[in-house]
Structure formats: structure tokens, C-alpha cells
Design brief:
Layout: E1 6-9, H1 14-27, E2 32-36, E3 50-52, H2 58-67, E4 72-75, H3 81-86, H4 88-108, E5 113-115, E6 118-119, H5 143-162, E7 166-167, E8 169-171, E9 173-175, H6 188-199, E10 201-204, E11 212-216, H7 217-229, E12 241-242, E13 246-248, H8 250-258, E14 265-268, H9 273-278, H10 287-293, H11 301-313
Helix pairs in contact: 1-7, 2-4, 4-5, 6-8
The structure holds nicotinamide-adenine-dinucleotide and 2-amino-3-ketobutyric acid.
Length: 314
Amino acid sequence: MVKEKILVIGASGQIGVELTLALRKIYGSSNVIASDLREENDLLKGSGPYVSLDVMNKEMLHVQVIRQNVTQIYLLAAILSATGEKNPNLAWHLNMQSLLNVLDIAREEKLHKVYWPSSIAVFGPTSPKHNCPQQTIIEPTTVYGISKYAGEFWCNYFSYRYGVDVRSLRYPGLISYKSAPGGGTTDYAIEIFQEAIDEKKYDCFLREDTYLPMMYMPDAIRATIELMEADKDKITVRTSYNLSGMSFSPMDIAAEIKKHIPEFSISYQTDYRQAIADSWPQSIDDSVARRDWGWKEEYNLERMTRDMMQNLNK
Ligand code: NAD
Ligand code: AKB
């Protein structure tokens, strides 16, 4: 087996913490270097190497890659949909330049693989609302969605033009309890759990019937690793794979939480994030990922809620 040295950029974020820990289990702690602009997340401390790194500083990134003999990069640094609408220039700049820096270095240093996540945010109001297919009309209306769609085409370009083995998933909204979310529209589905436990009520910023594609973090981590470990000849999509777990609305998740906390109540006060959510599909067709590398989710709303409640109550 080829010895891999993995650099995770954005390791202190919602996905980064859990992905770094999962990669360390597979590849060995010392072979997975966590890096971030902010300080090391408490859950990572003592579990392996950490470097402070700004992905926008290409020279420093390049030095780290050479110095540490990095063979794979997982690039997770980004500005998400809700924060992106508050500062579109910054979101575009970070989301695009970070990817171009990583792809350039991957080409120059002949890295074995690169992982970069896209999002269901690439889809816009003209895309099909239900079972949105892999290839369809894609006209995103958020700066985050535009940056993700442009990024997908850069991945495709570097793959076909320079042979960079870059792989990507269009994650749905991800729900987790270990590290805090970073400014997305789907964050309500995380906040609701903590508020239900602490306050027994939650004031939701999306309308009760806003259905969105969602996934529990253990499924997302497994999908990422399965995609990255799949044989190269199985990967037919070099932009980004549709990926699906479940679809629910605030009303559905509130009803599920009520099974665990009967006195829980939800109210609704929508804000600018409603328009973002309304522009996205309600559910995703991920049959191409299922066909190419055997994707199958394990968690539905009921199972996820039970697991979230158990872990948050600990
Ligand atoms: P997050 O905001 O929780 O984490 C991003 C991390 O990147 C943060 O720790 C931040 O400090 C770091 N970062 C920011 N600027 C940096 C820089 N210049 N250099 C180095 N690090 C920097 O985000 P997340 O939810 O973990 O998302 C990770 C990736 O997955 C992003 O590309 C996001 O678009 C994508 N994604 C996330 C979701 C989700 O629901 N969480 C859904 C779809 C796609
Ligand atoms: C967000 O809401 O911005 C993210 C995403 C779906 O990309 N969770």
C-alpha cells in the first residue's frame, strides 16, 4: 500500500474535526496533519499533528506540502451560504482562491489525491425541486452557490487537463453534535437540538414547510472516505457527485424531537435565509453516486434524532 500523508485544511470546522479524526483512525495519527486559520479544536488536541495555516497564502501552503511530504489534501476552508450573503466579495475570494491554490500545488507536486466539497447550493430556483438530478439546469442565486459551481468546473478542468485526481461531493445540509456549524442556511437543524434540550423551545428562521436535503455527519464522513478510496476508474464525475441522505422540514424535525421531549415547542420567525432555502431543491437524486461507487446512507430522520438526543444528553 502506498504511504499517504494527508493535509486537512479547515480542520477545526464542523466537518474538519470529525473527518480528521476518522482519517487518523485509517491512516495513523501522525500521517494526518490538521490545519486551520483558527486555533486547534479541543477535540483534535493530542490526537495528532496540527499546523496553523492560511490557505490563501499559497507560498506557505506550498512550503508545508513539501516540508511534510504531503500526498493528499482535503480542502474544507470556505465561507458558507448565510455568511456569504453578508460578504459576497470575501466569500467569492476565499472559496475560489483557496481551491485554485490547492489545485495548482497538487499539479506541481503531483499529489495522489485532492478532496474538495461542493454543495446542494449549486442548484438554484430553476433546478427541479424534487429528486434533483446530477445533470440539470443549474443557475445558483447565492454567491456561495456560484463559487461552488465554478469550483466544480475547476476540479473538472484540472482533472482532465493536468490529470489531478480531485474528487468532490455535493453535500446536503449536515447535522452533527461534535463541532459547531459555520454559518449555513441548514444550521437550524443543529441549533434546534441544543435549544430543545436547554430551553424546551426553538424559534426557527425558516418556515415550517421548508423541505431541504439533509444528512447526518457519520454518513457524510463515510461517503467522503468511500469516494476517496474508490478505484479511480469508477469515478465518472469529475465536477461533483450528488449525494443524498434524507429530506425534512422544520415541522418534521420538531415532531421527531417531541417524541423525546414532549414539552418541546417551535415557533417561526423567518429572515433572509428563507430566500436562500427557497432557491434550493427539496430532495436530491444521487443514483450516479450509488451506481459508481456504491453509496448508500444509513441514517433517516428518526435514527438521526435518536442518536443526536443520546449524544447531546451525555
Ligand atoms: P466550517 O465553517 O465549519 O469550517 C471551515 C473551516 O475553515 C473553519 O474552521 C475556518 O476557520 C477555516 N478557514 C477559513 N478560512 C481559512 C483560511 N483562509 N485558511 C485556513 N482555514 C480557513 O465549514 P464546514 O461546515 O466544516 O464546511 C467545510 C466544507 O464543506 C466547506 O467547503 C463547505 O462549503 C462544505 N459544505 C458544508 C456543508 C455543511 O452542512 N456543513 C454542506 C455542504 C458543503
Ligand atoms: C449551508 O447551508 O450553507 C450549507 C450547505 C448546504 O452547503 N450547510
